[in-house]
Amino acid sequence: MKSGNNRPVKKKPQQEFVALLGVGIDGDDGHTRLTRGKEFVLFGGSADTHARMQETVIKVVERLESRGRRIADAAPAELRDLLAEASE
């Protein structure tokens, strides 16, 4: 793509964004629940489901922080294992 003066237009490099997304599908009370953190977004669910998603992701984030890491630093398999442990 060229600009009006025939110089190529430089595209800004896109920043990578890594986050966990939690979606609860059992919310039927008319409330829209949304919780956002630096590296996660939780949407929907009943009050109990949403609270459980919050507790789980907070445990995962805390465990990673204790290792000096973030969600973006973790491999998918590591996140799966941490989520499984935190949800027990």
Report on the architecture of this protein.
The protein has one domain (20-86). 35% of the residues lie in helices and 15% in strands. It has helices spanning 47-66, 76-86; strands at residues 20-24, 34-36, 40-44. A three-stranded mixed beta sheet has the order 1-3-2, with helices on one face. Helix 1 (47-66) crosses helix 2. The model has no long low-confidence stretch (mean pLDDT 90).
Short key terms for the protein model shown above:
alpha+beta; 3 strands
Q: Termini distance?
A: 52 Å
Going across the biggest sheet, name each strand in turn.
Answer: 1-3-2
Overall structural domain count: 1
Which class do the helix and strand fractions yield? alpha+beta
What does the largest sheet look like? Answer: 3 strands, mixed
Radius of gyration: 19 Å
Chart the SSEs and their pairings.
Blueprint: E1 20-24, E2 34-36, E3 40-44, H1 47-66, H2 76-86
Task: Describe, in short, the structure shown.
By secondary structure, this protein is an alpha+beta fold.
